[in-house]
Each structure stands twice: as structure tokens, then as C-alpha cells.
Amino acid sequence: MVSSSHNKLWIKTGLVFCTGFVLIAAYISNADTNLQTAGAMAKAVDEFSATLSADQKKKALFTFEDSERTNWNFVPLQDKAKNPTRKGLRMEEMSVEQKQLALSMVQAGTSKEGYSRVRGIMGLEQVLKENEKNGTNVRSSDWYFVSVFGTPGAGKKWGWRFEGHHLSLNFVIEGNKVVSATPSFFGANPALVLNGGKKGLRTLPETEDFAKKLIASLSDDQKKVAFTDKLFAEIEQGKSLAPTFSKGLESGALNPEQKKIVQEMIRAYSNRFPQDFAEKEAARLVGSDFAKIDFSYALDKSKPGDPYTYRLQGPDFLIEFLNMQADASGNPANHIHSAWRASKGDFGNRN
Fold first, then answer.
1. Three-state SS for 160?
2. How far is CA 106 from CA 40, 47, 49, 152, 292, in A?
3. Are strands 294-299 and 227-228 parallel, antiparallel or unpaired?
4. What are phi and psi of 295, to 5 degrees?
5. What is the pLDDT of residues 115-168, one digit of tens each?
6. 273: which of 120, 205, 289, 341 lies 20 to 30 Å off by Cα?
């Protein structure tokens, strides 16, 4: 559910009306609109880095040019002996104070809703541990890793990452501006907790509810353009350039109510970030021409759980969603992967 404060924000930031629907073209009052977020990130990273021992710095601190900066992953990365192979400083290796400072970094890079989602994803590791019994992967809310690339400073490019199973947050900052927050990945297994103390919990409901509402509203003619019976491929990891996909149903072919749903879908992803940055990021990536946004989806009713996937893409953004894997208990189509990307180049790298 998108909060009323975010809805008010969307209106205040200058949404303009054209042919009966709202264009995503937020008015940016000055070049330093995201100064608050960039400053908060720098402060949080500096405070975290100041507590690190020499050995911890070797794991957590990289140069901005290091190739590891663009090597992003959302799967468990470990060897056969269950040792982590993901780079960065693991929360398990941090003191209580350092863990809190690491989470303060995450808070600086997310909205209240976004941070809640992050903590929910991390908390699902305990659910997986209970459901998998003797699983092959380590399941721990402390198996999340902090990496800092470069040093915060005026006029310099630097970045940081918070990453682990089903979560990848990547930021690039230059001077007083956050210039990139992609790729951003949020996943949930199980999507709906069906047993135990967290029964009924849905960690990422916004990724499903608006899409299902849109699909249900499509006419037969619209479905002919948007629908395919082949489920989409897994979200691509480890690369800074998002893949290119064929077009689906363009927003210009939607009715006013359907266009509103598409706007809600976009906000469900962009509102994971702090408000001052989210409005600018959405305006930059989505662009001012709403008609260029298109939607496509796949649904396979022949398989248990009715697995489905969808994409929403525009001039420079790509939203990908999949719910086609079983959860840890074997319940079909109860395992979400979702990503927000800059299709012309993540990590601030322009194609």
C-alpha cells in the first residue's frame, strides 16, 4: 500500500496532466535536490568506516575503480564448505555497534517503507532456516555484506553496496548528488509465509498487487499485445547494462484508470528510496513521455501456483518481476524476485 505522504509528494513535485493522465515529470527545484540524501550517506559511511579494524578495512573498502563495484548478485554466494564468496564485510564479523552503523547506512539510502522491506527480507532468512532444515545454503540475517568504493568527498565519485541473499542496494554519489541507485533488487522467499510465527506475512506485496490489478483490467485486445505464455527468464546479475527486451503494451493504449495503476506500480519501486532522491530518480529514468512506457507479462496456468512474470520498461528504466519458483517448503510460485534498473546503464554508467 503506497502511503498518503508519498501520494501527496507525487502531486507536489509537479506531475503534469496530458491527454487525461498524469505524466511522471517531477519538477526539480534546483540541482541539489538530493543533497540531504547524499549528505546522510556520506555521514553514515564515514561513521561506519571509522570503526573498522585494519583487517575489516581490507574486506570492506575498495577503490572506486575496482571491478567489484559492478559485480552485483542476489543469490547466496558460498563455496561447498559454506564459506562466503561474496566480497565485502559480513555483518556476522561486525560488533554490535558496527552492525547498527551498517544499518544506518541502509536507512540513509532508503525510505521508511524501503528500510522496512530490507529488514523484512533479512528476517526471511530465519524462516528459510526453519523450513529448509538441513539446507545447502547458509541462512542468516547476518549474512549481509557492506562494501564501500572510494572515499566520500566533495567533487569525487564514490559508492557503496549493501548486499546478500535476495537484496542488492547499489549507490553512486558525486559531490552532493546521488547519481545512481541501480541496480536495486528486492526478493522474498516465501512471498507469503504459510506457517510458523510469521504466518500471513507478505514482505513485498506492492510488487504483486498493482500488477495483478492491471492484468485483471486488461481487455482481450490489450492482452493480445501484453501477454505471452512463456515465462520470462531470470533477472540478469553481475552486469551493469540491463538486457533489452521487445516492447509490450504501450501506456498510450491504456485507459485512464489503467494508467493510474501503472503509476502506482512505478512508485512501488521508486519509493523504496528517500523522498528527495526518489522523485528525481523517477523523473530521470521514467522520462516525461508516459506513452513510451510499456507493460508485458507472462502467466502459465498449466503449472501449479499459476507462476507469472512481468516487465515495465520506459526510456531509461526497467522493472522486472518474477514469481515462478517454489518456496523452501515446496509451495509453488511463492518466491519473488524484483528489480529496478537503468536500462541505459546501471551504476551511473551511461551506454
1. strand
2. 10, 13, 14, 16, 32
3. parallel
4. -125, 135
5. 999 999 999 999 999 999 888 999 999 999 999 999 998 778 999 999 999 999
6. 289
CA distance 149 to 175: 14
DSSP β-ladder status, 294-299 and 184-188: unpaired
Alpha-carbon gap, residue 79 to 85, rounded angstroms: 7
Cβ 135 vs Cβ 129: under 8 Å: yes
| SS3 at position 281 | helix
Cell readout for 266 is 512505478
pLDDT in tens, 55-102: 999 999 999 999 999 999 999 999 999 999 999 999 999 999 999 999
Between helix 4-12 and helix 256-270 the angle, nearest 10°, is 110
Q: What is the pTM of this model?
A: 0.90
The partner residues of 169 in beta bridges, in order of sequence, read 162, 184
In 3-state terms, what secondary structure has residue 172? strand
User: Which grid coordinates are listed for 75?
Assistant: 543469490
Q: Which amino acid is at 58?
A: K
- For 257-289, b/e burial (b = at least 16 CB within 10 A) is ebbebbbbbbbbbbbbbbbbbbbbbbbbbbbee
* Angle CA 187–188–191, to nearest 5: 135
Measure the CA–CA gap between 162 and 130, rounded to whole angstroms: 24
CA distance 336 to 323: 5
- Other Cβ atoms closer than 10 A to 104: 16
State how beta strands 249-250 and 336-341 pair: unpaired
265 φ, ψ (degrees, to nearest 5): -60, -45
Rg of the chain over Cα atoms, rounded to whole angstroms, equals 20
Cα 348 to Cα 153: distance, rounded to the nearest angstrom: 17
Cα–Cα–Cα angle for 319, 324, 327, rounded to 5 degrees? 115
Residue 24 has pLDDT above 60, yes or no: no
Which DSSP state fits 243?
A: P
Q: How many CB atoms lie within 10 A of CB 105?
A: 24
Q: Kindly give the residue spans of alpha helices, DSSP state H, lying in 111-201.
A: 112-132
